[in-house]
Amino acid sequence: MPAAIDGASLPSRSRLTIIDKTHIHDRLPRLTPRKKAPPPQNPLPVPATPPLSTPLDPQNLHFHEPTRRILSPHDYELFQASRTYGLILSFVFSLSEAAADKKISSAYQDKIPDVIERILSFLSAVEEAINQCPPADQGGSRFGNPAFRDFLDNIAFQSSSWHSLIGVPSSSAIAEVGTYLHNSFGNRARLDYGSGHELNFVIWLLCLNRLSILPSSTFSGLALLVFPRYIKLMRKIQSTYYLEPAGSHGVWGLDDYHFLPFLFGASQLLHHTYIRPLSIHNELILEEEGDEYIYLDMVRETMASKSVKGLKWTQPMLDDISGAKSWEKVEQGMRRMFVKEVLGKLPVMQHFLFGGLVPAAEGMSKEEELGVKPEEEEKEGGEMVVEPDGVKHVHRDDAWGDCCGIKIPSTVAAAQEAKKKGEEDGFRRIPFD
Question: How many helices (H) and strands (E) does the chain have?
């Protein structure tokens, strides 16, 4: 049996090796558990709902036909700091809150206010006007149909009697309020429709609120009955007259035409027991619940209008949003988007109209002072005019709802033309899907 080896008898090289091993733990870095990275924080705060001001006494109101007043960047800054800006935020967010955790059918459980019934009848009469103004034959063109202008003329002709029925008090008030309604169906010159036109419909409702025709007790009915009826009407108008998406970002937007249904719809689903943001990929839930929830209905219609199956290909923004943990996160994101991408974009708000009920801030420019023609007199597609005293009409392509750019035929028009040709109606899958 070999004798025990004394470390002192080993060669110096071996002794060093033994010493190195005995102190190796001092050389290794200490293991510390990794801390989970904090979730990314959105730098934009969630916009709160400002208090809605009390309507003024009608005797103190001065009505006049609305005109554009955002004619320069300075005008836009004045608008953003104005009471009117806060009034718009308050009204839109109040409508959204009135829809919170409510199905559309819940609006029928109590007696529908008479004024809501009259507005719904009003919108049905607008739909009937579509039948009176059939689209012109365009030989298969997918761009806007000029018969849309006849439709708008029909609406303008009947507008006075319709507004009288819902209680608008005078001809001057009808002229002001009616302007917002006429501009809520699309642009006469460009034959397009976008988030700015949708905003005009909300401002029309806001004007009726300022006239005390639509008190806050009607907000739930407006969000759950009137607004979905307007969206349904617009789908028919868009498919009949092939209205082009105004500044659509294509697949990079929520929808080719609309924004506010996603805000109101997310509010409806805030605390739903089983429908989650990811549920928009479940076709059974879309089919069974789409008639009750605006958000699901919008997704269902968006998918039906596309020729490619799968939101990840056609609407990746909606697909990304579906990964949110809760509808509260979605609703907060929609509030931010409304402030940033609708009210916060000059290409959208340069078309906004100010009157007596929705007044401009003091110091904002006037069209006649700058020699700017009314928008309806501009060339089709608009023009960019830069003067030393400001920008008369701005055209940019960096916004969700930018204006007057290259004409974009709608996917709705493509689907309608395919049906006319008897082509198979259905989804086309991406080859590598």
Answer: 18, 6
- The model's pLDDT over 123-163, given as tens digits with 9 standing for 90+, comes to 999 999 999 999 998 776 778 899 999 999 999 999 999 99
Contacts 24+ apart (CB under 8 A), 75-83: 75/364, 75/365, 75/390, 76/346, 76/349, 76/350, 78/361, 78/362, 78/363, 78/364, 79/349, 79/352, 79/360, 79/361, 79/364, 80/343, 81/361, 82/360, 82/361, 83/53, 83/361
Give the amino acid at 225.
L
Q: What would the DSSP string read from start to end of 56-115?
A: PPGGG------EE---SHHHHHHHHTSHHHHHHHHHHHHHHHHTTT--GGGGGSSPPPHH
Which residue is associated with the tokens 């800006």? 85
Q: Specify the length of the chain in residues.
A: 433
Can you tell me the distance from the alpha carbon of 147 to that of 89, in angstroms, rounded to the nearest whole number? Answer: 35
Query: Which of helix, strand or coil describes residue 353?
Result: strand
Nearest to 338 by CA among 94, 99, 101, 98: 94
How far apart are alpha carbons 184 and 243 in whole angstroms?
Answer: 13
Residue 231 and residue 220: Cα distance in Å, rounded? Answer: 16
- Sign of torsion, CA 321 408 300 296? positive
CB 348 within 8 Å of CB 405: no
Beta bridge partners of 393: 385
- Amino acid at position 219, single letter: F
CA distance 246 to 407: 8
pLDDT digits (tens, 9 = 90+) for 298-313: 999 988 877 777 788 8
User: pTM (2 decimals)?
Assistant: 0.82
- Alpha-carbon distances of 148 from 188, 297, 348, rounded to whole Å: 7, 26, 22
Q: 3-state DSSP helix/strand/coil percent for the chain, to nearest 5?
A: 50, 5, 45
Determine the longest span between alpha carbons in the chain, in angstroms: 121
CA dihedral 148, 408, 293, 269 (to 10 degrees): -140
Q: Which amino acid is at 285?
A: I
Give dist(CA 50, CA 293) in Å, integer. 26
Q: Rounded distance, CA 331 to CA 375, Å? A: 34
Point out which residues pair with 391 in neighbouring strands.
Answer: 386
φ, ψ at 264 (rounded to 5°): -65, -40
Instruction: Please check whether residue 272 is in contact with residue 327, taking contact to mean a CB–CB distance below 8 angstroms.
Output: yes
Facing residues of 308 across strands? Answer: 428
